[in-house]
Amino acid sequence: MVIAVNTRFLLTGYLEGYGYFIYESFKRIAKNNPQHQFIFIFDRPYNEQFVFAPNITPVIAGPPARHPLLWKLWYDIKVPAILRKVKADVFVSCDGFCSLHTKVPQCLVVHDLSFLHFPSFIRKSHLLYYRRNTPKFLAKASRVATVSEFSKKDIEDTYKVAAGKTDVVYSASKEIFQPVSAAVKSEVKEKYTAGKEYFIYTGAIHPRKNLMNLLKAFSLFKKRQQTGMKLVLAGRLAWKYESFTKSLETYKYRNDVVLTGYIDEAELARLTGAAYAMVYPSLFEGFGVPVLEAMQCGVPVITSSDTSMQEIAKEAALYATPGDINEIAEKMMLIYKDENLKKQLTEKGKIVAEQYSWDKTAELLWDSILKASNK
């Protein structure tokens, strides 16, 4: 069987979200299925590190698909031509887009519908493309996969996609996220927070992540606890970050907030593992990988009571309404003052984290691909 895969998010030094999902899933799928041929379709020059098995053939179809007009060109003209040339049996696309101009069966992965629930957090041109085409993509795809039961229900309820067409494949945390030694914790704290304990948030600096409310909650925490605790925000500056960074300039506790910018996964794993606790108050997530990364590191978690996080973290986290800064602050104070609770959450988190793995994700996604191809 010839499986063509949209790999335009496999970007050197910029592997996030979709890119990690594609990389970790297909690294296993290609290795576990040597009898099949995989065609990786890139939209720009690729790094050889992404050709990680002998049964993978890379193909470049430019120009880079970076905005709606080029998305249309890439998915509906460039990709169908390649699918015909390689005689693909199935096309897999893990970024929520598929081709509307091919007869080849398609397995479409839709991680969430955040653009519908929070339209102000996406560029207008992109929003129009998503709104106009997502129902067409879901109708066109032979099979739809998503990363949580929450997202599955959202997709099926919003677009009336038949329940029998949608598979939950979950996501996972990379194995590099593990508990760190006392020596590493000390080293990391000296490097980032002058030796102080810290709460951590990991992810893009983006309005959907609710970081303004996190700052307000941290202010309440600092006022009430009179502690040297720091707040580390580990992630790149994403779309509409300017208002956040401008607010940070006049923030009362600016010296207690550390912005790391984008850091590689090895350093992120160390930084996560050395944290006192994670605070992840995102307004909307299809899965919430950082929550799982923290639990896998043995770090307790405070996260949002809405969207998918309660499904993923179960009883192993503290939950707060993302719009309620007092509730977020109360949970921060609770985990700061109650050492027994912190230990309980740490142990529960390790147990929950064991339920997810990229091996399992790869198996579930492969089953969905087979269903799409009817083979």
Features:
375 residues, 13 strands, globular, alpha/beta, 6-stranded parallel sheet, 7-stranded parallel sheet
Question: Please, could you describe this protein's structure?
Answer:
By secondary structure, the protein is an alpha/beta fold. The chain is built from 14 helices and 13 strands. It has helices at residues 17-32, 68-86, 114-117, 124-140, 149-159, 182-193, 211-225, 242-249, 265-273, 289-296, 309-313, 325-337, 339-353, 358-373, and strands spanning 2-6, 37-42, 56-60, 90-93, 106-109, 143-146, 166-168, 198-202, 230-234, 257-259, 277-280, 301-304, 318-320. Strands 3-2-1-4-5-6-7 form a 7-stranded parallel β-sheet, with helices on both faces. Helix 1 (17-32) packs across helix 14 (358-373) and helix 10 crosses helix 13 (339-353).
Write a brief caption for the model.
With 375 residues, the chain is an alpha/beta fold. It has helices at 17-32, 68-86, 114-117, 124-140, 149-159, 182-193, 211-225, 242-249, 265-273, 289-296, 309-313, 325-337, 339-353, 358-373, and strands at 2-6, 37-42, 56-60, 90-93, 106-109, 143-146, 166-168, 198-202, 230-234, 257-259, 277-280, 301-304, 318-320.
SSE layout and pairing:
Elements (H helix, E strand, L loop, with lengths): L1 E5 L10 H16 L4 E6 L13 E5 L7 H19 L3 E4 L12 E4 L4 H4 L6 H17 L2 E4 L2 H11 L6 E3 L13 H12 L4 E5 L8 H15 L4 E5 L7 H8 L7 E3 L5 H9 L3 E4 L8 H8 L4 E4 L4 H5 L4 E3 L4 H13 L1 H15 L4 H16 L2
Parallel strand pairs: 1-2, 1-4, 2-3, 4-5, 5-6, 6-7, 8-9, 8-11, 9-10, 11-12, 12-13
